[in-house]
Design goal:
alpha/beta, Rossmann fold, 7-stranded parallel sheet, 6-stranded parallel sheet, 14 helices, globular
């Protein structure tokens, strides 16, 4: 997590499967956008071909005028057809190294660097559709074996990849996610409250916050159960759940909506990146009881905004939160309720967590992550 001031480079033509940059609200989108923005700045002598799907996406305007970046549209009638066409285009473009996330083109025979965030499809299969689960279990191990090197975002995920697929330890490298500088404490609370009212978040009402895709592995039924217990004890906060719906079975949704305090549970839906710092910054508490994470970026974003964190103590989350928040077992509802109650009631402890969280969040940068990526791309590009 150290900053990188200068990077020695060797000219390469680097291809990047960049279509995830069009999927707002997903961890893959946040990762690939930030890592590539830093990469093209850190190693400008390289030529970058970004393989995209929708050239009209407004996000791509930020690459206009960059001489070392070219956008290349890969038609996408289906995921398989797109993957085949991607392989053909990389051959035509004479790519030295291709970076992809989870899968590469099926017939690609060039040098491949693969990022795999986590193996949740393997360990939490009921948080995926049947099709997505089968696809991931078939394709990810194939491309892990095919890649020259694998990048992941936590030591936990590194151990998972090594153990699950018998991958040599030194072929898997870790670069932690970073936190965007826009995530910082709120400076104009009145303006932020007016913005959040557009998402049905009451202007001056206190709230507990969850941010993430609405998926079974986020353990929202446990969160709502603990929220119910807090309300029964007289706590006045609402519960704000921000994120796009992903894969949430009907029984989980029914359990959430069946809360006796359903009127105090607010679903904002997808919220743009620019508004999230306001949501974090005005929250009394951020709670993330996830069952499985490759990293846990929302915890880092919350800490950077000065919001205290209660999180699961499993998978990668202790690497992110450290001693800056309260970590509890995700299957222990009583412990989760108690942690939330302590953070809301003990002002001295709460202030201490906020200070530690701000300090800890400052150690995670996208520049550092991109430096690791750039070094690996150059190493692979020089190999025979």
């Amino acid at each position: 997590m150290q900053r990188i001031d200068k990077l020695e480079v060797h000219n390469l033509r680097i291809g990047i499967d960049f279509h995830a940059a069009e999927r707002d609200g997903t961890g893959n989108c946040t990762y690939i956008r930030n890592i590539v923005e830093q990469l093209v700045r850190l190693a400008p002598e390289h030529e970058y071909v970004l393989y995209i799907t929708d050239a009209s996406n407004a996000y791509y305007r930020r690459f206009e005028g960059l001489e070392n970046v070219r956008l290349s549209v890969v038609p996408s009638p289906s995921a398989f057809v797109r993957a085949v066409l991607l392989g053909l285009q990389t051959f035509r473009d004479k790519i030295d190294v291709l970076h992809a996330t989870y899968y590469g083109p099926p017939f690609y025979r060039g040098k491949l660097l693969l990022t795999v965030h986590d193996l949740s499809f393997l360990y939490i299969p009921d948080s995926f559709s049947t099709f997505d689960g089968v696809k991931d279990r078939l394709l990810v191990p194939f491309f892990i074996k095919r890649a020259r090197a694998v990048l992941t975002v936590s030591e936990y995920s590194r151990r998972d990849i090594v153990d699950a697929y018998h991958t040599p330890y030194d072929r898997v490298r870790v670069h932690y996610n970073g936190v965007d500088p826009v995530f910082k404490p709120v400076e104009d609370a009145a303006s932020a409250r007016r913005t959040l009212e557009g998402y049905a978040v009451p202007g001056n009402a206190p709230y507990i916050l969850f941010v993430g895709r609405i998926n079974r592995r986020k353990n929202l039924t446990r969160l709502v159960s603990s929220f119910n217990a807090l309300k029964a004890k007289g706590f006045g906060q609402s519960l704000v759940i921000a994120g796009a719906k992903d894969f949430l079975p009907d029984e989980d949704e029914a359990a959430i909506m069946g809360s006796p305090y359903a009127g105090d549970i607010i679903f904002t839906g997808f919220m743009p990146h620019s508004h999230l710092p306001m949501l974090y910054g005005l929250a009394d508490l951020f709670v993330y009881p996830s069952l499985y994470e490759g990293f846990g970026l929302p915890c880092l974003e919350a800490m950077a905004c000065g919001c205290p964190v209660v999180s699961s103590d499993c998978t990668s989350l202790p690497e992110v939160v450290g001693d800056a928040g309260i970590l509890v077992r995700p299957d222990d509802g009583e412990a989760l309720t108690g942690a939330m109650e302590k953070m809301l009631s003990d002002d001295s402890f709460r202030r201490d967590c906020i200070e530690k969280g701000l300090d800890r969040a400052g150690r995670f940068t996208w520049e550092s992550a991109a430096g690791t990526l750039a070094t690996l791309l150059q190493t692979i590009g020089r190999e025979g």
